[in-house]
Please model this.
Amino acid sequence: MIAILGNTLLLMSFAFTIYGILSASLYTANGNRKFMLSGERAILSSSVFVILSTIGLLIELLRSNFTLEYVARYSSAETPTLYKFSGLWAGMQGSLLFWVMILSVFIILVIYQNRNRHQKLMPWVLITLGAIQLFFLAMSNFFENPFTPIPAGMVMNGMGLNPLLQNPVMLIHPPLLYLGFIGFSIPFAFGMAAMITGELDTVWIRTTRRWTLVTWLFLSVAIIMGGRWAYVELGWGGYWAWDPVENASLLPWLTGTAYIHSVLIQEKKNMLRIWNMVLIMVTFTLTIFGTYLTRSGVVSSVHAFAATDLGIWFFWFIILILVTNIILLVVRRKELASVNKLESFVGRESGFLFNNMLFVAMMLTVLWGTMYPILSEAVTGTKITVGSPYFNRVMIPLGLLLLFLTGVGPLLAWRRTTTRSLRRNFTLPLIVGLILTGIFGAVSKITMIYPLISVLLISFVAAIIFLEFFKGTKARRRMTGAGYFRSFFELLEKNRSRYGGYIVHLGIVMMFLGFTGKVFDKEADLSMNQGDIKTVGRYDIEYTDYWLETPETNPDTRSNHAAKIVTLKISKNGSYYTTLNAERRFYTDQNNQPSSEVSLKATLFEDLYIVLGSLDLHSGNAILKVRVNHLVSWVWLGTFVLILGSLVSLNISGLIKGKSL
Amino acid sequence: MSFRKKFILVVIVFGLLTVAWISMDFKSQEVPFVSVSDLVNNNEMFRQDRFRLGGNVQEGTIHYSDDKLTVDFLLEQGDSIIPVEHTSAAIPDLFKDGAQVIVEGSYKDGIFYADNLMTKCASRYEEESKYTSVSETN
Model:
């Protein structure tokens, strides 16, 4: 019943969106306001239908209605309730519906925010968003319908959720990623509207500024959470492997980050108007391309869904977007030409341009490496892959250059910077950087060039940022006579976007520290019997005990799996440090599909990372993979700082007080 | 020369440098996806040292060393078969008889030394599931 309702709503929203697009288009032709209102209401209703339809699917998942193929495929009676929610995005059909649901929520918000604004832009914004919605609705209705009943009638139980997805991070990562992808539709739609109407000043940029920042924040956090998931769930010991699907999420992030920087120049100087348009178009296209890459099966990956014929539709959708964009750019090229000119290599404008150049170069590097297997197969007939060595070789130097700009760029003056101001701003940080790098080199005895440069830049940039805060606070204190603490917060309050930006940069610097820690990583494969003690780095690992837990012995905690568990007593530098249980699970609703749970003891400087590869319950022989990962915590800590900085920039308190997005 | 031109020049030079940097060592990072028979019979036609192979684990050929850290098995792809050796404590969860796997590593004297063993996950996983078998029987 609910399924039929959901399906009907989905079909209705398809029809309503078509009507809405037509009606809004008529308004642009004849100027009769009624058509606009009617179109707006149609798309609003369509969006509400999509949301209701999604709720319907969720209800079916929660009450385990296995007459639906989708529900039977991605959940079972034993699936913990929490993870029945993840069923919504575990498969192709659900995630397409989920996708269009988020877009629908955004559309409702955009229509509400702009109900009395941007009368010229809005019809085209509505048409653009409607067109995107229509594409996904068509996919959802006619190709990958989540409400398809099981052909053979009722099955007793579903297949259950893939154990890899049964992790708390996987409850948050996919929705965040979708928010981060789909959010770029909004600035894109406004950009399109600006191009079509010729309203090419900064209105479209300023009105979507917050949308873009919020979207960027979601995407950033989602990418890092994906890394966190790989780290704690996949058990190979790292958080980033240049897997095609990881790359797919990184591509729009790179151009999106370039975009949020370069729009600042347009706002301040009215320059780079074509460039910003190109960036937002590329970013949006990459979000669709990323979806295509992961959903079509053109590249094989751990995360990719099975190959489907959906790919061809995505392909043509992308072509359509690109062709429309190029035509619009060609038509408007004269009006988009910028008025102001660049004047110097050492000015703020040039800093931003170099920043953009690096981001785009990184994007192309990742795109090339990701598509290389497909391209090489098309050209030579042999599929040739390039893995981490390629990506690291190119991305590390580019990333370090970018890190350098992170520190230097914000301190450059508009137009041109004098040598005197360069010296004044950068001498102290450079000294701090050199001293810390010297200490680091002496202590770690590392002679590799990249880690040393990385440490130099990390300390240089961090020193610059701290100095900026210190100088600003001091100046404010002199002006108002308030204490340091209060001056500091007033400083933030008065110049949110600037200091919020600094905090985000600080978060990025912390992450770079985490990335750099990789050079110290140690790994050992151990075969141990009960009572054995083995040493990895500074850790002595004693294997003290092992046992089995099953759904019968522990019904509350292990409703859908059995677990083999070993206890490891760990000493560090000779004294007791901690006790870890490493476990290997066998999911009973999944043909006893095994899944290793990583056991992790994380500190600020070192993570002890243990995976139970196998355990023989008769002899007690356990195979363990032990890794000592360095500085990984800084990646996660940096993320929190990044979030904090973004929130400062976004002026959350203002947002709550009802300022528009 | 106007500043604008200079800037464009800088961008072009940077672009060329990046491309040069990428292509300088590109061949050595290439890992071709080859068929088992090509690797065994036409080994001399490849310039690369590292390869990827795909195929199925032949039933009953999985064998672990005494310390259980090294696994060897026969990889079959069509009519071709190649012995594979792989050392790791963390064998992928889906590795078993008949599993579809991808191995990456080097080939020497008739044995493929894989430093990376990947099991084909999502799609395979759906095919094997009990639900699909129910619908297949109907």
